[in-house]
Write a structure and sequence with these properties.
The complex is a heterodimer of chains A (253) and B (101). By secondary structure, chain A is an alpha/beta fold. Chain A has one domain: Alpha-Beta Barrel (TIM Barrel). Chain A contains eight helices and eight strands, in the order E-H-E-E-H-E-H-E-H-E-H-E-H-E-H-H. Chain B has two domains: 33 residues, no CATH class; 68 residues, Ubiquitin-like (UB roll) (Roll), CATH 3.10.20. Chain B has a five-stranded mixed beta sheet, with no helix packed on it. Chain B has a two-stranded antiparallel ribbon with strand order 1-2. Chain B has a two-stranded antiparallel ribbon with strand order 5-8. The chains are: A alpha/beta (253), B mainly beta (101). The interface between A and B is medium-sized, with 36 and 26 residues. Strand 2 of chain A pairs antiparallel with strand 9 of chain B, so a sheet runs across the interface.
């Protein structure tokens, strides 16, 4: 649950980089997600033949979360968020303020500033940030409805790079924690959930897989499995063995 | 490509002063043309006459329910599309949702 709204799935997926809208729709179905992210861009005035993304998303079942991808300043992000609200069906936004083109790491300073402005303007803000527990705390204080630290750079598929930091963020966070970015395969998503994340957001891991629909299904189960494992209370890690079968009653001893 | 018109003022004389060469482009004549130019999604766009936002969307075959519009840097509400009129020199941004992460 985020900002009073309940979602049935803890997996949030993107709509970018798919080979076709049809494949995207199938992958969404297989993932079981009920929230998807979209980007806000100029309409192609000259080429009207392209199919509309929204033709392939059932907005009765799927919650649309506009993002501010590609924004490098707080002002750009605020402007894009407002356009997204106007074009869409809600006042929710996945807030991104990018600090560097190659790594796509967030500019936390501008992000926190933009969060404050948008929260004041009535937005439900889900900020994409990095694995810095202090930045996450500041975003919470600024009114963010959730915090979304990256596992690794967007689209990198490297998996959770700083496991301990995600665990610490989980410990400190008073709002939902969603690991967003860097997931590569199912075990990465499961790990995020085992660390206590409330959800995982991914795009490239599914869209870029050889078989996106199959990967979407894998991710669905990974997120469920990881969450169950987290709630089940795992065994502690030991440096040496601890036999599982009894030592007494061995024949020939 | 801008065509340049070259105007030469009358030969130097004691009344008019020295010969002057002026270079004019289409932009200088725009105020006399009976069409208007706006900036639409970052590009110059010509209109025959002022038109409402709703009218322009219809002309471009864009569904008004799926877009957000900025008119001169101000986001305008959907119910005002038929009333807001686009004039000479205006800037318009028409955005929609596309795939993204």
């Amino acid at each position: 649950m985020i900002a009073g709204r309940t979602f049935t799935s803890r997996l949030i997926v993107g709509t970018g980089k798919y080979s076709s809208h049809a494949v995207m729709a199938q992958a969404h179905e297989a993932s079981g997600a009920d929230m998807v992210t979209v980007a806000v861009r100029r309409v192609n005035i000259s080429d009207r033949s392209k199919e509309s993304l929204l033709d392939y998303i059932d907005t009765n079942r799927m919650f649309i979360l506009p993002n501010t991808a590609g924004c490098y300043t707080a002002d750009e992000a605020i402007r894009t968020a407002r356009l997204g609200r106007e074009a869409g069906l809600s006042n929710w936004v996945k807030l991104e303020v990018i600090g560097d083109e190659r790594t796509l790491f967030p500019d936390n300073e501008a992000l926190i500033e933009a969060t404050k402005v948008l929260v004041k303007d009535g937005f439900i803000v889900l900020p994409y940030t990095n694995d810095d527990p202090i930045a996450c705390r500041k975003l919470e204080d600024a009114g963010a409805a959730a915090v979304m630290p990256l596992g690794a750079p967007i689209g990198s598929g490297l998996g959770i790079q700083n496991v301990n930091n995600i665990r610490i963020i989980r410990e400190f966070a008073r709002v939902p924690l969603i690991v967003d970015a860097g997931v590569g395969t199912a075990s990465d998503a499961a790990l995020a959930m085992e660390l206590g994340a409330d959800g995982v957001l991914m795009n490239t891991a599914i869209a870029g897989a050889e078989k996106p629909v199959a990967m979407a299904q894998a991710m669905k189960y990974a997120v469920i499995a990881g969450r169950l494992a987290y709630l089940a209370g795992r065994i502690p890690k030991k440096m040496y063995a601890s036999a599982s079968s009894p030592v007494e009653g061995m024949v020939g001893r | 490509m801008d065509v340049r018109f070259v105007y030469r003022r009358p030969n130097g004389c004691s009344v008019c002063g020295p010969t002057v060469w002026l270079t004019l482009t289409y932009a200088d004549f725009e105020q006399y043309a009976d069409h208007l130019t706006i900036i639409l999604n970052g590009e110059r766009y010509e209109l025959d006459e002022p038109i409402s936002v709703a009218g322009l969307l219809a002309k471009l075959e864009i569904d008004p329910r799926r877009v957000a519009i900025e008119h001169n840097l101000e986001i305008i509400k959907r119910h005002t599309f038929p009333e807001v009129v686009i004039g000479e020199g205006d800037t318009l941004e028409i955005v929609n949702f596309v795939g993204g992460g």
